[in-house]
Amino acid sequence: MRVVRVFVKSASPENDAWRKMRGWADSKDLLKDSESHLIFGYTSLRPTKDEREYGYEFWLGIGAETQVGGEVTEHRFEGGWYAVTTHRGPPTPEVWKSLWDWVQASPYRWRKTHELERPRNPLASETDLVFDLYLPIEAII
């Protein structure tokens, strides 16, 4: 999938990265159809014990005709197999752990790449947000 991406490192990078992505996407009217323009986010730089800031990245699926520039860069998402669960509200460590536990008991194992968070309707209010959480997997040989 062809995507544009925005990366931010800060004390609240999810909000900061979303502001940048939304500003760019709104200017191209891409957020009205969340099925045609899938949005994924993930923690791309984990915080350390000495630093409060961490990194978050958003991806937005785009078509071949979409021009890229400004606040975003182009990226290619290769896809793959994922275990997926749905959660109402912002993702929590408990929900991720539940998905992890399912994978550990399944005929799959974790595949080292990005764990993705997909808001079903990125324009929903915080109380109405629903996320699909994607844990990358591969078959155990």
Task: State the gist of this model.
By secondary structure, the protein is an alpha+beta fold.
Features:
141 residues; 2 helices; 2 domains; alpha+beta; 4-stranded antiparallel sheet; 8 strands
Beta-strand content: 35-45%
What's the total helix number? 2
Compressed to H and E, one letter per element, the order equals EHEEEEHEEE
| Average pLDDT level | 94
Task: Tally the structural domains.
Answer: 2
Radius of gyration: 15 Å
> Which strands sit side by side, in order, in the main sheet?
2-3-1-4
Q: Strand pairing plus helix content: what structural class?
A: alpha+beta
The end-to-end span amounts to 27 Å
The level of helicity is 10-25%
Give your account of this protein's structure.
- With 141 residues, this protein is an alpha+beta fold.
- The protein has two domains: 1-78, no CATH class; 80-141, no CATH class.
- 19% of the residues lie in helices and 37% in strands.
- The protein is built from two helices and eight strands, in the order βαββββαβββ.
- The protein has a four-stranded antiparallel β-sheet. Strands 5, 6, 7 and 8 form a four-stranded antiparallel β-sheet that branches.
- The model has no long low-confidence stretch (mean pLDDT 94).
